[in-house]
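User: Just a sanity check before I run the rest of the batch. Below are the structure tokens for the first item. I only need the designed sequence back.
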């Protein structure tokens, strides 16, 4: 599924270290750590009627990731929120907006991977786009990738870093197979997530999701677990095999960019009845209720 260009985004203003620049003229230094080695952390935020859902949770994860990478300096939350407000105001945005928030280690004095070469502070980028949830409501098809998600001893998935080659390689496989996305396993052979989202299975009205071993701690994932607990829907975290995926009654993905999206086929095998199931529809409705009333007002 290829995202189409949104005409409203033709003249976007991008915020780079406080300077609002037209998208066609925006840029960072070739000495910036994001260019040199993907040395950056990021978050995806969604704007609902002037409010950003789970903003403080996203900023906390951004900070934790930067701390894990030993960033010498991290912009305070107040500065980041102010940059978001200015960017949204400049683009006259209020609803149906996705925000890509990036903090890099900053500009280096010379090319190289050594963090000691970074002596000018971080680079803060706020990219806000008119972008509704990206997945079709008719259901997704997945194909299992040969690319595995690494365990914490190789690269801790709780670090929400900007080096996405592991995901991109899996997405290339999905594209070549004609699938919407790739299902990724961990090095033990259990389900981790897709190349872009967390996954949930439904079996006999119980909702399960993989443990946070080879996938990040997703904000939307956590919200779904909160919703299940609040509505007395049986749920849990456990190791999930491909065999359990194939015989699931329902399957859905979660993420800020796509919210909840049902999966109807994996590796050519139909999931459940081959259509979006009742539990997925119920949870999608409960999630929409949360986003309609909660969030931090920024517009």
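Assistant: Here's the designed sequence for the first item:
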């Amino acid at each position: 599924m290829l995202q189409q260009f949104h005409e409203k985004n033709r003249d976007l203003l991008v915020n780079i270290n406080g300077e609002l620049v037209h998208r066609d003229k925006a840029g960072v230094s070739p000495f910036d750590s994001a260019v040199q080695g993907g040395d950056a952390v990021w978050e995806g935020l969604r704007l609902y009627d002037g409010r950003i859902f789970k903003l403080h949770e996203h900023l906390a994860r951004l900070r934790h990731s930067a701390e894990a990478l030993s960033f010498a300096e991290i912009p305070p939350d107040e500065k980041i929120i102010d940059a978001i407000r200015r960017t949204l105001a400049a683009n006259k945005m209020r609803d149906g907006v996705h925000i890509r928030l990036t903090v890099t280690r900053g500009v280096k004095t010379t090319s190289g991977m050594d963090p000691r070469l970074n002596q000018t502070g971080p680079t803060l980028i706020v990219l806000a786009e008119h972008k509704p949830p990206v997945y079709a409501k008719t259901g997704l098809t997945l194909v299992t990738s040969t690319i595995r998600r690494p365990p914490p001893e190789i690269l801790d998935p709780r670090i929400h870093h900007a080096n996405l080659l592991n995901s991109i390689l899996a997405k290339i496989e999905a594209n070549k197979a004609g699938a919407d996305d790739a299902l990724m396993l961990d090095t033990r052979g259990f389900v981790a997530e897709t190349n872009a989202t967390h996954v949930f299975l439904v079996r006999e009205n119980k909702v399960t999701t993989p443990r946070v071993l080879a996938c990040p701690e997703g904000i939307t994932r956590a919200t779904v677990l909160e919703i299940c607990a609040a509505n007395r829907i049986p749920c849990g975290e456990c190791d999930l095999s491909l065999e359990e995926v194939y015989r699931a009654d329902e399957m859905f993905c979660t993420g800020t960019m796509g919210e909840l999206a049902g999966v109807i086929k994996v590796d050519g095998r139909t999931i459940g009845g081959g259509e979006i199931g009742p539990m997925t529809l119920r949870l999608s409705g409960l999630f929409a209720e949360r986003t309609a009333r909660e969030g931090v007002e920024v517009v």
